Amino acid sequence: MGGGIREKHGTAVEDESAGDAGMVVVQDLVRTYGSGDTAVHAVRGVSFTVPRGELVALKGRSGSGKTTLLNLIGGLDRPDSGRVMVDGTELAGLGEKELLALRRDRIGFVFQSFGLIPILTAAENVAVPLRLRKADRRERDERTALLLALVGLDGHAAQRPGELSGGQQQRVAIARALANRPALLVADEPTGQLDAETGRSVMELLRAVVRSEGVTALVATHDAQLIELADRVMELRDGRIILDR
Ligand code: ADP
Ligand code: MG
Questions:
Q1: What is the band of 20 on the pLDDT scale with cuts at 50, 70, 90?
Q2: Closest CA to 184 of 98, 46, 61, 85
Q3: Which residues line ligand 1 (CB under 6 A)?
Q4: CA–CA separation, 166 and 76 (whole Å)
């Protein structure tokens, strides 16, 4: 599973796998914005390990550090101190290019605001990561069709985001996040803009793809209904984990 994405990138992120160490390993992670009197200690010494295939819900009220933590794990931001390892690769050891390759090939991102490109169709949006990886047309078309079916949107391939409901847009975003068969899915309040029922179905989809694609997922959410579907729940408060069950 997932072997197909490891060909010819030739960077340090290749040919390593998490083994027993965990898909995500975070140690003593610290991220402070600003300095002096106005410093904001967004993440203050967080450590945990997430095994492969686990769906983890990250809860905590607004400002508790969820987004900051997910950005550090997803390689979108660098910590002040501490370590992040994703699928056996230490992020601090990567240059910008290698980090970009790791994000493109091994991590799928899902955001609250969907982040689809408005002028592209659903299928073209899903295909963006495949194009970035220079997958050939046939693979692109096959993978895109399969992913749209996986998220229940087979009949909507030609529609643009503006012609889709919020729930459908988030399904497209999830399909896109899975395009390159990532090891890790990072979702930051993916149901935050959806009504409760639609949010529930999107979370059930995430639950299903974690099983069917063998991916590991970290999902920040407020929603109690969604938290129920997780294998594990961690709660952040003021940049620290105060609960892990
Ligand atoms: P959450 O996602 O749980 O709402 P965040 O990680 O967004 O929490 O924010 C944690 C803290 O860091 C908050 O106090 C927030 O105001 C602050 N913060 C987040 N991003 C920045 C930034 N780019 N610059 C300064 N402070 C920030
Ligand atoms: Mg946030």
A1: low
A2: 85
A3: 33, 40, 42, 60, 62-68
A4: 25
Q: For residue 40, give the ligand nearest its CA.
A: 1
Q: What is the pLDDT of residues 191-234, one digit of tens each?
A: 999 988 898 889 999 999 999 989 999 999 988 877 889 999 99
What is the Å distance from ligand 2's center to 141 Cα? 34
- Proximal ligand: closest to the CA of 42: 1
If you measure from the C-alpha of residue 110 to the centroid of ligand 2, how many angstroms do you get, rounded to a whole number?
A: 12
- Per-chain mean pLDDT for the chain: 90
- Residue whose Cα lies nearest atom 24 of ligand 1: it is 33
Looking at the domain assignment, is residue 89 inside a domain? no
Q: What is the CATH number of the domain that holds 187?
A: 3.40.50.300
Contact residues for 128 (Cβ-Cβ < 8 A; gap 6+)? 117, 120, 176, 179
